[in-house]
Each structure stands twice: as C-alpha cells, then as structure tokens.
Design brief:
With 253 residues, the protein is of the alpha/beta class. The chain contains 8 helices and 8 strands.
Length: 253
Amino acid sequence: GHPVEVPMPAETGYGLDANRLIAEMGADTAAVVLTTPSNPTGQVFDPEAIRAVVEAAADCGAYVIADEVYAGLTYDRDPRGIAALTGHPEHVLTVGSCSKTYAMTGWRLGWLAGDRTVIDEVVKIHESTTACASSVAQNAAIAALTGPQEPFEEMYDAFEERRDYVVERIAGIDGLTAPRPDGAFYAFLDPEGVTDSLAFAKYLLGEHGVVLAPGSGFGDAGEGNLRLSFAASLDELEEGLDRIAAGVAARSP
C-alpha cells in the first residue's frame, strides 16, 4: 500500500472536509488517519464530518486511526474522542499520550486503544521493536491520569488564555491571518504574499529574533504558512508577536 495525502482547504480554516476525504477512499483503503486537535493548525474537527468519515471507512472495511494526542487541550468544541462520536467504534483505533495533556513529552508514554484482534497483532510487532515503556514512565502516567487534576486544569486555563491573546493580536496585525485554533497550542499563521515559508522563517529569526516553524515542514499544503506555538508565557508571546508584526510590516509591499 501507499499513503495518500488529502489536504484540507485553507479557505475553510483547515476543517475536516468529509466529502473531499471520502472521495479518495475505496475498496483498497486500509486506514484513514484523522488528527484532532491538529498540529499544526489547532483545528478540532466537526463531529458530523467525523461521523461521515468513520461511516465511509466502515463501508470500506477500513479503520480510522484517531490521533488524539492533543485531545485534553480542546477549547471550543466537543472534547469527546472519535470512537465516542460514532456508531462504529470497532472501526476506530485511538492513539493517546500523556505528552501534551500532562506536559510529559520526555517520558515517551502513550497508548493505542481499539478492537482486541487488532491490538493483539500490534503488540506482536511492538514487542519485537520496542519491548515496552519503562516502568518508571508507566507509574508516572498512572499518577498523572488518576491523581489530582488541578495542575492540568491550571495549565489548561493558561493555554486557553494564551490562545485568546494570540487570536486577538493576530487580528490586529496587517498582512497576517490565521484560523482560530480550537485546540492544541498552535496557530497556523498565513502572512500575506509569502510563498517560501522556510525563507521567511529564517528572515524572522535572523532579522527579528523570533522562531516559527515553516509550514513546508508539514507537507506541501503548509507551504506559505508558519506555525506559532503559544506554549510560552504571555510576556514572551507579547514580545514575540511584536517582533512578528514588525517583520511582516517590513516585508509588506
């Protein structure tokens, strides 16, 4: 088999276009990957569109691989996972992690949940390549998942506040737009007239001292965009957005 990329339209904020995705599916489709909330766009897919895609996948005898690593950081939409939104949970394989929700990136601890027959086959391969996560990481994950949630709630509130600040600031910068992020901690910036995102990212770094990820690193559909992470303090975001605004203004026609 081979992967088929189906870019979502920038014109609609990179939301899930179910018809566009379903049109690429067929009898030879083995799996469909949905990442929600999304890195790099911060978009959370509409439940009705998700249901349509899962229904089509089930009709093809395929699985939907639900990448929900950022699911704990969902702000404006239904936070339930894809398996809970559909009538075909047996066709959904859910990928989860402690990395983002509990800021445990370095622990390298995640999970796969789904139909037992599939998981049993996955375990056979996993045992031969990775063995298992360390017992220290596993116990840390248990503590995070079952312990007091106040630290996570404080972090969630801080991310939401930063998201709102970033959205407000972007709206006030001429020549710069971005879809409103519904989740994760990214905004996918669209600076007017930029066609080489790597070159523009290097320009902002070298001339204005601010680091953004070039959109080309996320595939051809990301070219011309830049990913901003708001996993930083409000003071740092204020300074960074001031520098971005200056950089965009200096390059404006």
